[in-house]
Specification:
The chain is about 5% helix and about 40% strand. It contains 2 helices and 16 strands. The strands form 6 sheets. Strands 3-6-7-8 form a 4-stranded antiparallel β-sheet, with no helix packed on it. It has a 3-stranded antiparallel β-sheet with strand order 12-9-16, with no helix packed on it. It has a 3-stranded antiparallel β-sheet with strand order 13-14-15, with no helix packed on it. The longest helix is centred in the first third of the chain and has 7 residues. It starts with 14 loop residues before the first strand and ends in a 6-residue tail after the last helix.
Length: about 180
Amino acid sequence: MRKDRRFWAANGRVAHESLVGQVDVPLSAGVERRVRWARCSLCAIDEGLADDEMDLAARRDKELLFGQAFQALDDRGAWSFGYDPEDGYAGYVRTAALAPPGQRAEPRHRVAALVGHLYRGPDLKSGELMALSYGSRLSLSGETHGLWCRLASGGWVSAKQLAPLGDPAPDWVAEAQRFLGVG
C-alpha cells in the first residue's frame, strides 16, 4: 500500500516519533510553534533540493491561519518541515511565518467575523497591522480598552470580531450562508 505523502510526517532528514520502525532517519517529537503571519502555505517540496531551489519547487497543499499550531520537526533555513496537529497534514512552511518556540500563548479565542483586523492600538485610526481570516486563533493578554482587546503578542482587535475558541456557531447553515457571495 502506497503512503500518502500529505500525511507522512517524515522527510529525508527527520521523522515524527510515531513512525518508529518505518523510517531510517532520526525521530523527533517536534516543537510546537504558532503561525504569526495572517496566512501561510503548507507546501510539498521534493526531497534533495538545495535550499535556494526550494522556493521555486514549493506546491501548496493547504493554508494555516494566524495562531494555528504547527509541529516543527526540522528547520532548514527559510523552510521548516513538520505537520498540522489538527489534521495531520505534513509539509514545509516558511520558517519566518512561525513564532519562535514557546513565544505564543495558547489561543482561547477565534475570529468569528468574516474578516478581522489587527490594529496597532485600540482605535480604528491607529493603523492596521494585518487582516485576520475567519477562524484565526488569538491569545488575548487580558488588557482591554473599551471594546478592544490586546493580543498577548501585541496589537489590538475589536471584541465584536471574536468568539471563544471552543464555542462553535450554533447554526452551521446560517454560518455558511454568511459566506455566500464572498471571494
